Amino acid sequence: MSKRVAILISGGGSNMVALAQSMVGDHPARPVVVISNDPNAGGLAKARDLGIATAAVDHRDYPNDRSAFEEVLHKTLEGYQPDIVCLAGFMRILTEGFTARYEGRMLNIHPSLLPKYKGLHTHARALEAGDNEHGCSVHEVTAALDDGPVLGQARIAIEEGDTPETLASRLLPLEHKLYPAVLRSFAANDKTPIRF
């Protein structure tokens, strides 16, 4: 039986689209809902166009109460009974109380070669450090930010004249290839690291 996948987004949802479009045919999972913390996120319309249920839990409705936001997010998720939760450009830091509920079942994609450059501004940080390569990682989500077991990585060479914007644009197609590959393996209970 196919695993049920919920995808959390905050913006345009390009990684969500790549994940959703990969879950066809004999894939061991299928998307059941796309949820955003921004009711105006462009990815929600894309998900509806793909025939996927959508929901929004606006974090701005809970300005001083992260636990209340997470409780509503959890209840919304549980309405769809997900086996796996994929963070795909979800720009909210989740507390230990939330991540513990999905331990071993939640994935995230991060635009760096973890453990390097956890957090934001990864492309600029790689350039400032003088690195000769950059990449993206898919990892299991734990309470610590960008710190769970790495299940896959894709690498690109940093070229002369690269900017954070050019790095980001060259890396995105690899994100769209890596995340679906890791999800397919993960849904099939195969945690062999994927590298390219």
Automatic annotation (TrEMBL):
The keyword Transport does not apply. Gene3D superfamilies: Formyl transferase, N-terminal domain. It comes from the Bacteria. CDD domains: FMT_core_GART. Its EC number is 2.1.2.2. The record marks 146 as: Raises pKa of active site His. It is an enzyme of class 2 (transferase). Pathway: Purine metabolism; IMP biosynthesis via de novo pathway; N(2)-formyl-N(1)-(5-phospho-D-ribosyl)glycinamide from N(1)-(5-phospho-D-ribosyl)glycinamide (10-formyl THF route): step 1/1. GO terms for biological process: 'de novo' IMP biosynthetic process. One of its GO terms (molecular function) is phosphoribosylglycinamide formyltransferase activity. (6R)-10-formyltetrahydrofolate binds at residues 66, 91-94, 108. The active site is at 110 (proton donor). Catalyzes the transfer of a formyl group from 10-formyltetrahydrofolate to 5-phospho-ribosyl-glycinamide (GAR), producing 5-phospho-ribosyl-N-formylglycinamide (FGAR) and tetrahydrofolate. Belongs to the GART family. This is Phosphoribosylglycinamide formyltransferase.
